[in-house]
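Why show two proteins at once? Because comparison is the fastest way to build intuition. When a single record is shown, students tend to memorize it. When two are placed side by side, the eye starts asking what differs. So, the first record is below.
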Amino acid sequence: QVQLVESGGGLVQAGGSLRLSCAASGRTFSSYTIGWFRQAPGKEREFVSAVTWSGRNTYYADSVKGRFTISRDNAKNTVYLQINNLKPEDAAVYYCAAQFGSTWSDNSRRYDYWGQGTQVTVSS
């Protein structure tokens, strides 16, 4: 089992940057693909990015390509999401999630474990 805790959210001006962290507990963290999702008020949860267990393969939603960077440090049991050039439409609660194995998915139902989320607010 994996427990996930997100941090790093906050209030940022449009054009600014944030780095979100997803800290995991569990000795098998490196066996999981980690994904980031976000959910804005009144909207469905949407895929943002994912990184496979090795860290070598990363995936992004088209809306964040070029602005978001996902990375992981298995020694620290942590996955990061660097967000640059924030836009008002990036405002949401950001969740990290774990999917066992080396494949990835943009379908939230494929993920087995979820964190509690961290709020990102963007002022224009």
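Second record. Ask yourself what differs from the first in the token line.
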Amino acid sequence: QVQLVESGGGLVQAGGSLRLSCVASGRTFSSLDMGWFRQVLGKEREFVAAISRRGGSTVYADSVKGRFTISRDNAKNTVYLQMNSLKLEDTAVYYCAAELSTWYPRSAGSYDYWGQGTQVNVSS
């Protein structure tokens, strides 16, 4: 069993920055591909970014490319999402997810474990 705990959400003005963190436990972190998704109430969960087990491969949604950066520190069992130039439409609950086997980074169904989520609110 893998436990994921996100932190770092909050309220920020448009154009500002936030860094989300997700700490994993219960399994060797370097065996997990990791992803970030987000969800607005009433809408489907949306892929944001993903990173492979050793960090050699990253994938981004077009909507965040060039503004968000995903990274990981396997020594700290942590994956990060640095969010810059935030826009109103980035407001959502952000979820961290972990995948153990076959990796389809953009597909929520590919992930085996999910965190509880952290709220990000971007104001004008």
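One difference worth noting in the second protein: The two ends are 40 Å apart (CA to CA).
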